[in-house]
TrEMBL record:
InterPro entries: DUF1850. Pfam families: DUF1850. The chain crosses the membrane at residues 6-23. Keywords: Membrane, Transmembrane, Transmembrane helix. This is DUF1850 domain-containing protein. It comes from the Bacteria.
Length: 157
């Protein structure tokens, strides 16, 4: 291989690496005081937990909009404290025994209180993120959109 081809190939590889490391992409940033930030893809996810009073599973579906999280549906097993009572459409009973409420509320930022007692978990693309294993009990967590490059995520910048 002659030197000109080697130089072009090396330059091309360097350009691709620079692009990969420095090109910003929109991500979901999970941020809590005293912890390194975590990042999730900018995609639909489910937020799961155990209701603190009813002790039953509850989960919500969040879709990603241009500048907000869209809570489309919420699912729960039993009625009790904190359970929605109004929906855009009639509640449905799913095959697995959950009541489904259509919500369609938007949020620029989501605030969670993570706890092992309620097993706060995010599920995205069939991958589980057990937040209660990543953070101490009662950690306040903020979820928001950011534009960040791979090098910023690696270095914590």
């Amino acid at each position: 291989m002659n030197n000109k081809i080697k130089a072009i190939l090396t330059g091309s590889i360097l350009m691709v690496l620079l692009f990969i490391f420095f090109f910003p992409e929109r991500m979901i940033k999970l941020e809590a005081e005293g912890y390194d930030a975590r990042y999730l893809p900018d995609e639909t996810f489910e937020l799961h937990w155990i209701h603190s009073i009813e002790k039953s599973e509850w989960y919500e579906i969040y879709e990603v909009e241009a500048d907000a999280f869209l809570l489309t549906d919420t699912y729960f097993e039993t009625f009790g404290a904190g359970v929605p009572h109004e929906s855009e459409s009639a509640p449905e009973l799913t095959e697995d025994g959950f009541v489904k409420f259509t919500v369609n509320d938007t949020y620029k930022t989501l605030y969670l209180n993570v706890s092992e007692n309620v097993e706060t978990t995010i599920i995205q693309n069939q991958k589980e993120y057990p937040l209660y294993e990543f953070y101490e009990a009662n950690t306040a967590l903020e979820m928001k959109f950011v534009n960040t490059s791979l090098i910023q995520r690696i270095t914590g910048g």
